[in-house]
Amino acid sequence: MNTQDLFSLQGRTAIVTGGSRGIGRMIAEGFLRQGARVYITARKAAVCEQTAKELSALGHCVALPLDVSSLEGAKALLAAYAQHESQLDILVNNAGAAWGAPFNEFPEAGWDKVVDLNMKAPFFLTQTFAPMLRAAAQTHAAKVINIASIDGISVNPWETYSYAASKAGLIHLTRRMATRLIEDGIVVNAIAPGPFASDMNVEARDHGDTVADRVPAKRVGQPEDMAAAAIYLASRAGDYVLGHTLVVDGGVTHVRGDA
Asked: Alpha carbon of 206 to those of 149, 174, 199: distances in Å?
């Protein structure tokens, strides 16, 4: 048994949606450090291109700034990516949105925007890139990693109805996709992050010490924690893990009342 290269991504290609900041950037940086060629996408072109420029110090990182919340956006990303590569080894469906409002005031726009990006987009991105993933699967397992949330597993204190529903749906969608796509040599899993500092989780970003007091591990997540989880699932080490949601939360899910 050769375990030396279990976690290597040398020679692999990866797309990370929402890769310009937060958890997406953590994953992109981790992949680059393991030898992958990484393509990041985000709606804000300037931010996406600046992040790619910064990460290029670690390896091959290219910005493909697009809005992937629709099928048209997924097809546009495929066309842009096809200018660089002929197959895809790893697709990370990370781009996401949140919306909070009281129950009686929660708007339809806050439902549609969040569900379209958090749950619909991962399905259609995977469907769109399936031929490229199948091409990679001719030599090794191709990977799809959906970024869910612990809020899809247990109930948070905030009125984020569409966010919680979309992340719970994504977790089950991951299982359904996994059992079908393994027939094509494509391994599908998910990660459910807990408190990581990001623009989406401003509480962990701006009040990390206070948040850490509610975490059994007594700290918020670090970039290395997220990178390690994604590298595990993306590499040979995760080939026999199928339809699983890896919870990376320092134990938060176990101490929530609704867990």
From this structure: 19, 31, 10
Q: Is 4 a member of any domain?
A: no
Query: How is the chain split among helix, strand and coil, in percent rounded to 5?
Result: 45, 15, 40
pTM as predicted: 0.95
**Chain-centre distance for alpha carbon 199:** 15
Number of domains in the chain: 1
Q: What angle do CA 64, 34, 191 make, to 5 degrees?
A: 70
Q: Is 180 exposed, middle or buried (0-12, 13-18, 19+ CB in 10 A)?
A: exposed
Would residue 163 show up in a list of annotated catalytic residues for this protein?
Answer: yes
CA distance 89 to 136: 6
Structure-block tokens of residue 164: 């919680």
- Statement: residue 258 has pLDDT above 90: no
Single out the catalytic residue among 39, 163, 232, 240. Answer: 163
CA-CA distances (angstroms) from residue 182 to 14, 130, 175, 242? 18, 12, 11, 8
Per-residue pLDDT for 143 more than 90? yes
Residue 138 lies in a domain: yes
